[in-house]
Amino acid sequence: MKQRMTLFMAILLIGIGLSNAQVSQVTGNVMSEEDGLPVVGASVLVKGTTVGTVVWFDKK
Question: Which region is the signal sequence (predicted)?
Answer without folding.
Answer: 1-21
